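Render this sequence as a predicted structure.
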Amino acid sequence: MLSKIKAAWRVLRRLSGDDAYERYLEHYARNHNVDCLHACDRPLSKKDFFKQWQDEKWHGVKRCC
């Protein structure tokens, strides 16, 4: 029963975007921090990540007419 609740919670977090920062950090660790020959940029802070996410989401006209 507890495993079903945890699975449902993970699905709910994914659908709502609540786990977006955790997924961003996983992506960053897999793809951007691999064997850097020069000083790599650090991942965005949680605050900066959500600011950028909101700016991209709401930038520009979002209507059909």
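Summary. The helical segments are 2-16, 20-31, 46-58. The mean pLDDT is 84.
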